[in-house]
Amino acid sequence: MSIISQLNRPAIFLICGIIIFFVAIVCVFFMVRAYRAGKAIGMDTTKMKRAVTSSATFAILPSIGILLGVIALSGSLGTPLPWLRLSVIGALHYETQVAEAAAEAVGLPGLSGTFMTAEAFTTIALLMSVCIMWGMVFSVFANKRYLKRLSSPKKGGGNGGAMGFGDTAMTAMFIGLVSAYIGSYIGSLVSGNGLFTFTGSWLPIAVVIVAGIVMAVFIWLAEKKNAAWVENFSIAGSMIVAMAAAVALGKFI
Fold first, then answer.
1. Which of 233, 225, 241 lies closest to 58, judged by CA?
2. How far apart are CA 74 and CA 95, in angstroms?
3. For residue 41, how many C-alpha atoms fall within 13 Å in the half-sphere facing its CB?
4. What Rg do the C-alpha atoms of the chain give, in angstroms?
């Protein structure tokens, strides 16, 4: 039995399914409590129902990006683990980056089910879990103090202070991740590895350019055309178009 077949065994699906079901129950519990609290303080039920409907509607397309991430990772890590990670606490850019880094660290030529071993999967899963758990851990001990800091106008409430630093830090971190990925492909191209191989060096760069153009269009629509609602679809839309471009460019060029 191959490692991917073992990772897709019903027992693993059951374990992950129980965890996801528990988290879904918790979400429903707090949603009901929030709705009842809104009624208790006199909020308009029509507006609350409209908010629930609009939120559910706008959550559909962004969730496609998560589904694409599960599909992309399932070929190398099986379906249950990516399904669990991206359903509960994981983020698509984080999961793929850490999984690839762990695969390289254990000596795999790439994040692929063809070369996956039980030892490699264990290392990848452990690293993915340990690296992302600290947000929950720190929240237990520091979240109350952090919320007080945000609510204080002298200590970073509003759009400045802690919130401003948090937004800047997240933006800087994301730019660093993107630059690292793009830099690796440009370095491979400049060094001559795959210089004349489109799929070796040019394809990732071309896909990045396509994704950037699509994202720029979404930003332009949101900021210049007052279509703020498209921001909910920007990441998923950019991913879908970029993946389609990768397939088309790899097949026809």
1. 233
2. 12
3. 7
4. 21
